[in-house]
Automatic annotation (TrEMBL):
This is 3-oxoacyl-[acyl-carrier-protein] synthase 2. Its EC number is 2.3.1.179. One of its GO terms (biological process) is fatty acid biosynthetic process. Keywords: Acyltransferase, Fatty acid biosynthesis, Fatty acid metabolism, Lipid biosynthesis, Lipid metabolism, Transferase. Involved in the type II fatty acid elongation cycle. Catalyzes the elongation of a wide range of acyl-ACP by the addition of two carbons from malonyl-ACP to an acyl acceptor. Can efficiently catalyze the conversion of palmitoleoyl-ACP (cis-hexadec-9-enoyl-ACP) to cis-vaccenoyl-ACP (cis-octadec-11-enoyl-ACP), an essential step in the thermal regulation of fatty acid composition.
């Protein structure tokens, strides 16, 4: 018999704020963290806006100053968000449980700012000036590796690279490990720090980003008729998943129960989803089947909802193909208008959001949504959060390469 799995701790760093409560308060108030880029000079560049994390100092959270240069920014985010999640869960890792605690925390592009900086050093100063910490700082698995090192988790440890689906895949795989008895607790989620000159301009040259530089706060507008691309974000979302029996034994608070995971591949195109949305439909169907939850029980979907012309209509088609007449009675919102799109970190951030949504009974809005096109005709919770009894919530993540990943949580009942 498979184990039941619950969410007992949440850690969140986003463009909205550092910490779960600050980010959540602003999210449900309809605020956004998107603004002009401050971290580098954007003069004469096509995209000058992003959802940057503001005021983040890793030394404020126990990372020694001498260690900071050895850690990519996305790893710093992950370490601090993990600290927050462990404290939120009141979960201590020690010699009595370390072997039963694992980590799956992932990124899409990893320490890309390290690569940019050190490649620049090589070009201007020669290869001898490349830092010996370059590779262990920039590779994608180092967030998971460093979390284990810093906090002593000796169970299963890995990272998953599926572009913008990485964080959601990480949550799903951690869930699988616990319910099959391979771990009693997992630190899971996603992290990303992709607001860099190289990364932003690479996406800009693909015509994937919004160019509404004069109005940054309304640039990301998922499902809006006049959407023109996504806005880059950054941050980390970390969840503590626990075997129910262990969580109850230690008197843990429980945000939600994790009940389903589904993933598929479009096998179609390196960047574009299938126009019908069938890959996403199949992933949602698989997740609900895994959860043994009927369509009519679903209350809320946190959509991938990137604000690109293609994604939002394809995802809407996918939802309608699965839910049929039920689709228009669902609450569907994208929180990327508030946070920006944090690539591999997005699934972690949005996993935190659906757990908090279930616990609080408040559905965050899709901001900047004033007019939709004819085919985008679902209830996207426009501009204002609503109170609702959220019994079942889903989170969708769709990544370049055709990766589709979906998780399902429900309100916990003994």
């Amino acid at each position: 018999m498979m184990k039941r799995v619950v969410v007992t701790g949440l850690g969140l760093i986003s463009a909205l704020g550092i910490g779960l409560e600050e980010s959540w308060k602003k999210l449900i108030a309809g605020e956004t963290g998107i603004d002009l880029i401050k971290s580098y000079d954007t003069t004469d560049q096509p995209v000058r806006i992003a959802g940057e994390v503001k005021g983040f100092e890793p030394t404020d959270y126990g990372i020694e100053k001498k260690e900071v240069k050895k850690l990519a920014r996305n790893t710093q985010f992950a370490l601090v968000a993990t600290k927050m999640a462990l404290e939120d869960a009141n979960f201590k890792i020690d010699e009595t449980n370390a072997d039963d605690v694992g980590v799956i925390v992932s990124a899409g592009v990893g320490g890309i700012e390290i690569m940019e900086e050190q490649y620049g050093n090589m070009l201007t100063k020669g290869y001898r000036r490349i830092s010996p910490f370059t590779i262990p700082a920039m590779i994608e698995n180092m967030a998971a590796g460093n979390i284990a090192i810093y906090y002593g988790a000796k169970g299963p440890n890995r990272s998953i690279v599926t572009a913008c689906a990485s964080g959601t895949h990480s949550i799903g795989d951690g869930f699988d490990l616990i319910r099959h008895g391979r771990a009693k607790a997992m630190i899971v989620g996603g992290t990303e720090a992709s607001v860099t000159q190289f990364c932003i301009n690479s996406f800009a040259n693909m015509k994937a980003l919004s160019t509404r530089n004069e109005t940054p706060k309304t640039a990301s507008r998922p499902f809006s008729k006049d959407r023109d691309g996504f806005v880059m974000g950054e941050g980390a979302g970390i969840l503590i998943l626990e075997e129910l029996e262990s969580a109850l034994a230690r008197g843990a608070k429980i945000y939600a129960e994790m009940v389903g995971f589904g993933d598929t591949s479009d096998a179609n195109h390196i960047t574009a989803p299938i126009e019908t949305g069938e890959g996403a439909t199949k992933a949602m169907r698989a997740a609900l089947k895994d959860a043994n939850i009927p369509l009519e029980d679903v209350t809320y979907i946190n959509a991938h909802g990137t604000s690109t012309p293609t994604n939002d209509i394809v995802e809407t088609r996918a939802i309608k193909a699965l839910f049929g007449d039920k689709a228009k009675s669902l609450y569907v919102s994208s929180t990327k208008g508030a946070t920006g799109h944090a690539l591999g970190g997005a699934g972690g951030i949005e996993g935190v959001i659906i757990a908090k949504t279930i616990a609080e009974g408040i559905i965050p809005p899709t901001i900047n949504l004033h007019e939709t096109e004819e085919e985008c005709d679902l209830n996207y919770v426009p501009n204002k959060a609503i109170k609702a009894d959220v019994k079942v919530a889903m989170s969708n993540s769709l990544g370049f390469g055709g990766h589709n990943s979906v998780i399902v949580m429900k309100k916990f009942e003994k």
